[in-house]
Amino acid sequence: MGGKTLPLPVRGRDRADLLDEMRALRDHDIQWEAGKAFSLVYHAGDEISDFTKEAYTLFFSENGLNPTAFPSLRRFETEVVAMTSHLLGGDAQVCGNMTSGGTESILMAVKTAREWARKRHPRLSQPEMVLPVSAHPAFQKAAHYFGVKPVLVPVRSDFRANMKATRKAINRRTILLVGSAPSYPQGIVDPIAELGRLAEANHLLFHVDACIGGFMLPFVRSLGYPVPEFDFQVPGVTSMSVDLHKYAYAAKGASVVLFRNAQLRRHMFFAYTDWPGGIYVSPTMGGTRPGGAIAAAWAVMHKLGQEGYREIAREVMSTTTRLREGIQRIDGVHVLGNPHMSILAIGSDEVGIYEVGDEMSARGWHIDRQQFPSCLHLTVNRAHVGKSDAFLADLRVSVERCKKRPVDRALDKGKYALANAAVRVLPGRVVSKLTSAASTMMGVEDVGTGERSAAMYGLMANLPNRGDLQEVVLDALDRLTRL
Ligand SMILES: *Cc1c(COP(=O)(O)O)cnc(C)c1O
């Protein structure tokens, strides 16, 4: 399978012409501005985003790699980190850095744990970390990159980490426990206080992934909603990840990784002093760091302040409550578990939930599909305020239509199996490409599903083994990332 090469245009092109072309290309993207797309985009409204863009542009060229060259960026980053720490119950010991996103924050937490363990147990050859199956794939990525073995434990029927299984999974090689606040799939906070006690009792590090919840849960709690303990107030918590480009409504490329103290954070840093190019030191994975993302995060946090974030959380939570209650009133679907904030998973025992997803897609909604159990996923944010009635009306019609259809038993049994990676990289229109890849592989005719992805999910479920699924997904990624 060859690609194509593309020469640079010989002569530079006209500015207006280029911008027109780019705007036209945008028309084919998901139209998140209409509040009909979930995940991928978190939008606090045009006033906030226009301001944040201005802040970003001011520092468009600056580079966070060298904080001595740009004291401005140094001030922004240290303040962003200190404000985030304060929000999450940190004391003066807690410190951290900004990263490009949740994945990098998690990579750094796992890398730090590995270095910490190497210092304490020099003879430990195969370190392990224990994490609930609901933990974000970034932990699997970190495990893969840094040679830490991931030991998965199941969640209970309420989707929270199973403590008994976690206790049993700990052994001499364990270095790190993981919990989510909340987990991405169902939006439910793990038993952080219990995990913290377990970590302390076993002298382990404990990372709380608050990538999605860090800028919601504190405000949700202050509004009077019940939120369990989840942050540095829990003694056993040794590190946290908090995305700013989600519910802090910062520009993309902004997250914070926090550590209990400077000694622990030291294991994250990297220095190389023998390079002919000079002495090199860097806190995180990347080298060059975009000044714009750092500046924009600082700007939006100051622009909104505690009151601004609380007001947004109030709106988002009342929209979430309307959605939750509305979903429960629709016969045939239900919300999974008891979510702590604004992430909802919709499942069904009666209709094929992926088919409901297809019906919703046909009505212009962009909703992720999840697995184990099969469900649809909503990340409700300010972009969805005022959209709940339209959503519920379409959901009601979609469910009714699916009820009228004879249900494919295979689909009904929840036999769908699609790797999380596929769900992440293969939404909507790409699905047909995957379908043809899968069908070629299985030697069946192209089913050409177009908008209808349920057939694809069924097809994936019947692939002989997970290894094949992995190949299909990687193959699709390969095709997607070449011309
Ligand atoms: C989004 C998310 C991540 C990963 O963050 P990216 O910014 O996409 O790299 C990790 N954990 C949770 C719980 C998340 O919601």
Could you walk me through the main structural features you see in this protein, from its secondary elements to its overall organization?
- A hairpin with a 7-residue loop joins strand 10 and strand 11.
- 43% of the residues lie in helices and 12% in strands.
- It is globular and about 70 Å long.
- With 483 residues, it is of the alpha/beta class.
- Helix 4 crosses helix 5 and helix 10 packs across helix 12.
- The protein has 17 helices and 13 strands.
- The site of pyridoxal-5'-phosphate (PLP) has 13 residues, from helix 4.
Bound molecules: pyridoxal-5'-phosphate
Percent range of helical residues: 40-55%
Please mark out the parts with pLDDT under 50 across 5 or more consecutive residues, or reply none.
Answer: 409-425, 442-451
- Main sheet makeup: 7 strands, mixed
Tally of helical segments: 17
User: What's the alpha carbon Rg, rounded to whole Å?
Assistant: 23 Å
Instruction: Give the CA-based shape.
Output: globular
Structural class by SSE content: alpha/beta
**Percent of residues in beta strands?**
5-15%
Distance between the termini: 12 Å
Number of strands: 13
Task: Compute the average pLDDT.
Answer: 90
N to C succession of SSEs: HHHEHEHEHEHEHEEHEEHEEHEEHHHHHH
